[in-house]
Amino acid sequence: MDRIPVRELNQNTSAVLARVQRGESLEVTVSGTAVARLVPITSTQSLLDRLVAEGRAVAPTVSGPVVLPPVLGDPAIDSAAELSAMRDEERW
């Protein structure tokens, strides 16, 4: 991987990007320290497809909306208010 100073990137942006477009990967340096990498985008593959191909994710087995878990308890009761009231009772 070639290194280029930020000054060169600033002065020759089109030429540097043309190199990246041709497939080169470049590290951009500031005062000799690498701060960024310019890498070509080589695939139109989706992120999920790429992660599945790398073995880092599993593709979904069903399609459609995600099933939500059941609602527990009485939705008419404000649990935060109930908890606050219980704490107030404990303090006295």
Automatic annotation (TrEMBL):
InterPro entries: phD-YefM_TA_antitoxins, YefM-like_sf. Belongs to the phD/YefM antitoxin family. This is Antitoxin. It comes from Streptomyces sannanensis.
